[in-house]
Write a structure and sequence with these properties.
Layout (H helix, E strand, L loop, with lengths): L2 H17 L4 H14 L5 H11 L7 H14 L3 H12 L5 H17 L2 H18 L4 H12 L9 H10 L3 H7 L1 H18 L11 H10 L1 H15 L5 H20 L7 H31 L2 H13 L3 H7 L4 H5 L2 H10 L7 E2 L6 E2 L2
Antiparallel strand pairs: 1-2
Length: 360
């Protein structure tokens, strides 16, 4: 059987199993095992590749960020951040819908996990939206959409996984996700204002109320400063930044804000470990899948198909590739912050004839 047909069968099995609800990790593994049976590759080699895919120090940042989100959620300190969001934007049309988006921006900068975002929003703001008469479908769609910001706004766990497996600067990925993440939030706010439910009209918070809410939220909002500040100044690696954030929560946030939660810490650690197993097994399976694609010369075959259809027209080729219109034609939206804050992360180098950097 030709490599092209093996590649098609492997991809079809992966997509078919995923479509019927099989978890991604097992769907990927099934595709790899099928290809292994049709090639001279031995099973022990594939098993070894599964372990090689997760043998990365940078991936150790993931459980720390998951633990940060779990501690913040379980200790119930997110109420202070919700209250801050309410004082900032709760009085406009569709107030609670606006609060969901703004709070998700704040919490994304702490947890880095869309799953944690969904869990917190579903337990805190979704019941309040139901009491105000928001349509359940709108509430579910808004929470699901807002939680995607956690995959963009640092410290994104997705950025850590991608950087670790693709040997890409995690700091650069963090910075590159800031503007797209904020744009997603602004877009959701605009949609909620013009097309979402009206909600209950709330009075505008006074400056005194806003100052009080901001003061109450200072302790949890220091966490993004610790993470990004440490990484950008070179004091921490992403893994170390996650560890420092966990220590800060254990030593400062929980004792000050909710000291009774200390006895529940073992359960939080266990939950974070369980959550970590999900991306870990997926990364292992994806690594083996990618290795098999490379063995079957998948990129060459796919590029040949694309060239055969689109010829050399760069516009058609770009649209044929799984990319956002704005990011394709305006890449500076993604690269502007990394180029100005951490230029080396996007291939810039110091100007040999003077100050500043030269960027490709």
């Amino acid at each position: 059987m030709s490599q092209g047909w093996i590649l098609i069968l492997m991809a079809a099995l992966f997509l078919g199993l995923g479509y019927i609800g099989v978890p991604v990790a097992f769907s990927l593994t099934a595709g790899v095992l099928l290809a292994t049976m049709l090639t001279p590759i031995s099973l022990p080699s594939i098993i070894g590749q599964l372990f090689n895919g997760i043998d990365s120090e940078a991936l150790l940042a993931v459980p720390f960020f998951l633990l940060v989100g779990e501690l913040m959620t379980s200790a119930n300190v997110v109420g202070r951040m919700i209250n801050l969001s309410l004082t900032m934007i709760g009085h406009v049309r569709g107030g609670l819908a606006q609060v969901v988006t703004l709070f998700s921006m704040f919490f994304s900068g702490i947890s880095g996990s869309s799953s944690a975002d969904v869990a917190v929003l579903s337990r805190t703001l979704a019941p309040a939206m139901a009491r105000e008469g928001y349509d359940p479908g709108f509430t579910a769609a808004l929470i699901a959409s807002a939680s995607t910001m956690a995959n963009l706004i640092p410290p994104s766990i997705m950025a850590v996984v991608y950087g670790a497996t693709g040997n890409v600067s995690i700091g650069g990925l963090f910075l590159g996700g800031v503007v797209p993440g904020v744009l997603v939030g602004i877009g959701l706010m605009i949609y909620s204002y013009f097309f979402g439910p009206v909600g209950f009209k709330k009075p505008r918070a006074s400056l005194f109320e806003f100052a009080g809410a901001a003061w109450d939220a200072v302790i949890p909002l220091v966490i993004p400063v610790i993470i990004m500040g440490g990484i950008l100044t070179g004091w921490f690696t992403p893994t170390e930044a996650g560890l420092v954030a966990v220590v800060y929560i254990l030593v400062v946030a929980i004792p000050v804000l909710n000291w009774r939660h200390i006895c529940e810490l073992p359960l939080d650690f266990a939950k974070a470990g369980l959550l970590y197993s999900i991306p870990l097994i997926t990364v292992a399976a994806a690594s083996a899948f990618g290795w098999m694609l490379a063995y079957l010369r998948g990129p060459d075959l796919v590029s040949g198909w694309i060239t055969g259809y689109a010829g050399t027209d760069p516009t058609i080729i770009m649209f044929l590739l799984v990319a956002a219109f704005v990011c394709i034609f305006f890449p500076e939206i993604v690269l502007w912050i990394p180029k100005h804050v951490l230029p080396e992360s996007v291939g810039c180098f110091k100007n040999p004839s003077g100050s500043g950097y030269i960027c490709p």
